[in-house]
Amino acid sequence: MEKEKFYITTPIYYPSNKLTLGNCYTTVVCDAIARYNKLLGKDVFYLTGTDEHGQKIAGKAKDAGKTEMEYLNEIIADAKELWKLLDINYDRFIRTTDEDHVKVAQHVFTELYNRGYIYKGSYKGKYCVPCEAFWTESQLVNGKCPDCGRDVIDQEEEAYFFKLSQFGDKLLDLYKNNPEFLEPQSRVNEMINNFIKPGLSDLCVSRTSVKWGIPVPFDKNHTIYVWVDALTNYLTGVGYLSDDKMFNKYWPADVHVIGKEIVRFHAIIWPAMLMALDIPLPKKVFGHGWLLFGGDKLSKSKEVASKECVDPRILAPRYTADAVRYILLREIPFGSDGSYSTEGFLNRINSDLANNYGNLVSRTLSMLKKYNQSVVPSYKDSNDPLDKDLINIVLTEEQNAKNYMKKLDSSKALTSIFAMFSKANKYIEVTEPYILAKDPSKKERLDTVLRNLIETIRIGTIHLSAFLPEVSKKVMDILGVEAKIGEPKFYDMKEGKTLENCPILFPRLDVQKELDELAKL
Ligand code: MSP
After folding, report:
1. Is 270 in the pocket of ligand 1 (CB under 6 A)?
2. What is the CATH number assigned to the segment(s) 341-479?
3. 4-20 residue pLDDT tens
4. Mean of the per-residue pLDDT values for the chain?
């Protein structure tokens, strides 16, 4: 039987500077969703990459005394290293400077023009001469250029426009008929009230003043507006124009996961472009919240200025990729904003990873060694309410985790998975295997208790492997189980198998000492 496909994308990041922990958030969330869908047996395609055109990048390269490509290649190499460091398992890293993408962006532009959706007009705006950039009135800061703070002048240039104004009603129908197209629901109201109801204007989709961009194929004085160029990456990534078989298999995307500030590009401009092209729309756009740092969005410039260490390139090698992934996935309620602090991060490592999960695994495996020579014991179906309660919670939380992941909510799914581990730790306290072990007549009961613990670890760890792949692999290797979510089944371990002992998974941290040391870095 052919596997169900699942195509997920992150936004493509601006490589104007090194990527931040904020950018890691979207990428890690998508990675966990992609991995989880693989566990469910789907044929997953995960696309991420970089959005490389525009005046800002050209300016950065110039300031650094480099060509655009030299500047970009360094940042892209760093981004790929970062994704390796965080165990990001993407299927393609797309760059908008890739040859196949340039072709797609040009084709889309020409096709929209041929279909009568793009026309030539003139663009009036506020222009900053040194920055060579147009701004709208609302982007100016105290009437000056928001980038350099200098005076701007009124300027007019010839430009192409996309007839976005024709799509208001079609978009309203889309949101109404497909309530799952844009989530969370609050973003739909935002789009309708802030953009569609006041009336959509046609969108300027070319510039003559921006040189670092993809040329309009039939009018080479113009380059294609970066957002039109960038959005089409989602088509290029799965073989549009280059591999029909692949494109027909993966398109439409199952979900574009993006930050809330770029929802309007994905929920207004992008579906309008696709409707004009007669290409099916993505099934879902999900606008997530921000990782806040002291109440602010963690941006590329602020991170540099901040005193706390928020560099994933330092945090991941020091505390493991899994720990960094965990804090990003767990701390931000999906769809809302969430606060990050180093202290919160370190406390979570101690409470959830070391004390809850790590401790459960190491206690269970060392009891198994001590009381049963590390051999997986048989079990006896009992009417013991303690067993029933454990099994019931594990199977219920497993189903909850699945349901949450269907809604893309990793934070809640992790809460469910960790509820299984907390329950198992409590189960040890109430069943007291160390007391049972003292009485040979209780051997059968002891075996069942140990077996119940191992099965709970097995089920929880398989689910956890989408979120914390490194530590889960260690534990799944010890248990000898496959990373696969099938039909719910509590007893599934091979009896009689000898399990190896487990190294300490997450050493307990001295939070104050760590904070002091990080502050010195
Ligand atoms: N290049 C565009 C996207 C084009 S997609 C066709 C862009 N790039 S970006 O680098 O500025 O941002 C990329 C993503 O990173 C956005 O989804 C943004 O929300 C996310 N984040 C950047 N900082 C963030 C936080 N502090 N918290 C959560 N996500 C944040 O926009």
Report:
1. no
2. 1.10.730.10
3. 999 999 999 999 999 99
4. 94
